[in-house]
Design goal:
Blueprint lengths: L1 E3 L2 E4 L3 H12 L4 E4 L4 H6 L5 E2 L1 H9 L4 H6 L1 E3 L1 E6 L2 E6 H5 L4 E3 L2 H15 L3 E2 L3 E6 L7 E6 L2 E6 L2 E4 L17 E17 L8 E5 L2 E9 L2 E8 L10 H12 L11 E16 L2 E2 L2 E3 L5 E2 L7 H22 L3 H28 L7 H16 L1 H12 L6
Parallel strand pairs: 1-12, 2-3, 2-13, 3-9, 6-15, 13-20
Antiparallel strand pairs: 4-8, 5-8, 6-7, 10-11, 11-12, 14-17, 14-18, 15-16, 16-17, 18-21, 19-20
Helix pairs in contact: 1-6, 1-8, 8-9, 10-11
The structure holds flavin-adenine dinucleotide and 3,4-dihydroxybenzoic acid.
Amino acid sequence: MTSRTQVGIVGAGPAGLMLGQLLHLQGIDSVILENRSRQYVVERVRAGVLEQGTVDLMREVGVAERLAREGLRHDGIYLAFGGARHRIDMAELTGGRAITIYGQNEVVHDLIEARLTTGRPLHFELEDVSVHGLESQAPSIRFRTNGAANELTCDIIAGCDGFHGICRPSIPASQLRLYERVYPFGWLGILAEAAPSSHELVYSLHEHGFALFSMRSPQVTRLYLQCAPDEDVSQWSDDRIWAELGARLATDDGWRPNEGTILQKGVTGMRSFVAEPMRFGRLFLAGDAAHIVPPTGAKGLNLAMADVYRLAGALAELYKSGNEKRLDCYSERALARTWRAQRFSWWMTSMLHRSDSDNPFDHRRQLAELEYLVSSRAAMTSLAESYTGAPFDA
Ligand code: FAD
Ligand code: DHB
């Protein structure tokens, strides 16, 4: 089977689905191709912090009805160390910018519903997806459905297939520059049936390492513990997890997370990664396909959204006037935002995690940095600006 579209989108994660929605609103045809099942994509628990720009974008493209109802707006966050919690009032420091807690899987759910409403193609469970003719005017995507071979010819291919996808590896190695830092720790994350005991997130540095208190709803808490990158989850009984979360998060004023049934456990590795440029011929990379940040800054999902907003604007111009100027700037402009987020995510990670190679000097330096941060309006403003994120620009 052969078919044709304007933009072939590989991957139905947040980047691919949002790009499809943005193109739809411009009257541009696309086909979204995903190798996993719909259920897998919707149930995958990942990020939870939406920047103001992501919330605004969801609203702009008409997929924010449930987000407006169920999303939890947070004006501040807490940093905890030395037995005390310190609040950073992000909204006050940034002229009203805030974050919203809404699970990535809910974002994906809402974008899939919107896609289905448009009637435009979205295919799951495809096999052997590959991209071809990237330097030609008619690149193509080949894949199998139920064993049958298909080829989709496109004007443009958007590689939105995440870090382990096939688009980035299809670019000749000589055409890419890769930057990478792998951290010597990971996060053990849990979802628990427990009412959040704090209205806002708590990022904590303890002598045992980092811990994070977050949430998904008024009934569900999301918590993370710094662990080894290859930590064996089976070594972590529920009792051990709660004891360690209590030790790392509890503060001298008696605050600690509420406990409850653990619904889900998983370990995530931590890396910083950038591939430059984010383009090869008619293939454009967006989101995790081009860059990964350690999760401490809560930037991964938001960067993916900023990328596709920019890419959709450039494609709209291409189809309206034949002008490729914005497409030609896409990689450079997207990388500028990416590197700012890399800097912030690396800084938050190194300030809040303990590494085996650290010595007592490093620990005191981390505490001095945190103490400075929570006592300086300038330093808190800097954190708040980066954490809430700059407005998206096309
Ligand atoms: P993805 O969400 O990875 O979507 C890519 C899609 O492409 C997937 O659906 C995938 O199945 C599909 N795909 C892959 N290969 C192919 C192929 N060959 N053919 C077709 N489709 C393909 N960020 C945070 O800010 N906080 C967090 O707590 C956090 N936790 C995370 C936990 C994990 C385990 C991971 C992997 C990431 C986490 N992130 C977190 C990062 C955040 O989730 C990502 O930045 C975000 O998902 C990026 O969206 P994306 O659409 O670019 O990529
Ligand atoms: C969550 C994830 C993050 O990476 C983060 O920095 C804050 C919150 C979360 O899953 O809720």
